[in-house]
Amino acid sequence: MTDLSHNANLDAPDSSLNVLIIGYVWPEPNSSAAGRRMIDLISVFKRRGARLTFASAAQRSEHSVDLSEMGVNAVDIVLNCASFDEFVSGLQPDIVLFDRFFTEEQFGWRIERSCESALRILDTEDLHCLRHARHQALKQGRDVQRSDLYSELAQREIAAIWRCDLSLIISEYELVLLQNTYGVAADILHYLPLLSTLNDEDVATWSGFDRREHCVVIGNFRHAPNWDAVQYLRTAIWPKIRQSLPKVECHIYGAYPPPKAQQLHNDKLGFLIKGWAKSAAEVVGCARLCLAPLRFGAGQKGKLLEAMECGTPSVTSDIGAEGMGGDMPWSGAVVGGLPPYSDAFADQFAAAAIQLYQSANDWQIAQFAGKNLIASRFDRDVYLPLFEQRVDLLLSRLESHRQSHFNSIMLRHQTLKSHQYMSQWIEAKTRLAAIDTDVL
Questions:
Q1: Lowest mean pLDDT: which of 10-19, 160-169, 275-284, 396-405?
Q2: Domain 200-377 belongs to what topology?
Q3: What is the pTM for the complete model shown?
Q4: Alpha helices in 64-127 (DSSP H)
Q5: Which one Pfam family would you cite for this protein (predicted)?
Q6: Contacts for 330 with CB less than 8 Å, ≥ 6 apart
Q7: Quick one: how far is CA 72 from the chain centroid?
Q8: 3-state per-residue secondary structure call for 400-432
Q9: CATH code of the domain made up of 4-195+380-435
Q10: Is pLDDT at 133 greater than 60 in this prediction?
Q11: I need a surface site. Which of 77, 86, 244, 377 has the fewest CB within 10 A?
């Protein structure tokens, strides 16, 4: 389970280290896997006793975590504005961590100009270009082609990876894809999966098969793969499950449900839109099954790790389980080898859910397969120290690391200039518009 109090454990104090995180959004660990991951990254530097600043141009929401409680300085910044230059010049961070490649595009050139010697780390979250390629193929009812992976979005994302000193990759599948398809150098990539602190005391609190009922779906509605999965579940899969299990309900939880989500709510069918869950662990821990019929996407799925942490077996697609299970037994069932737009996929998904929901023996085996998966592949105490060691190594030899990659030097020189000129043009245009308004 994610435990914010763990962040206060300063294993290796280093109060001289000054870290800036530029967030795409303000962290919401109870709303998304991205929010949970950001808290984990913050905890790496907090363990070191580093001075940490989190800055974002996004609007804060009611679900945003209070970073001040974690000893993090929170700063609002503005896109396409020279005020950021003054801010970062005064801060002079040793490390800058970009949250997704969009923030690197927006602020990377300013970091280059104001604090060139800072170690630049990109947390990709997942490969947006891979998710986009799969989405386009799904909409056209076909398999992903190599040309889908060479989109303009891919060119932007891979360029951002090259411009950074290190990029954090959440999925082994994506690690291989970056090296074999895009030719990215292995030594500017670092595998850092989702992390868990599940222990035997947590496992002892799990409810058994007979004390659980119904199915649960959880995920931020603003994330396109989640919204597609909910709609697909409602129209193509849930009616099949409900026909065999007429008393079973499906409870849909997630932050930011759009108004049209309520149109899917159907009491008669037992398909119930619940909205945001204050405690995801509580609602997932009461369910017998977690359903995640993801038809496109990338990275690792926080909802499926959360299900394993709650001892709740899951039924998902091969895309849902991608980069998570490795060669170990899944905590439930994975429906793969079928096009995600086919009737056969919906049939097999429903059949797998029905079987697992009714079989106490299969369910118990799946529950403890999740425990084994977490211990083997998501142990916080294994992966955070490896990341810390990688950061220390780069800090000690940053210049030689950069000099060994001409692609990085070239892209920082060429593309950061274009981002600079575009940003400055937008800033000038905004100022002129403000002047015109004052004159009028």
A1: 10-19
A2: Rossmann fold (3.40.50)
A3: 0.89
A4: 83-91, 101-114
A5: Glyco_trans_1_4
A6: 314, 321, 366, 369, 373
A7: 21
A8: HHHHCCHHHHHHHHHHHHHHHHHHHHHHHHHHH
A9: 3.40.50.2000
A10: yes
A11: 86
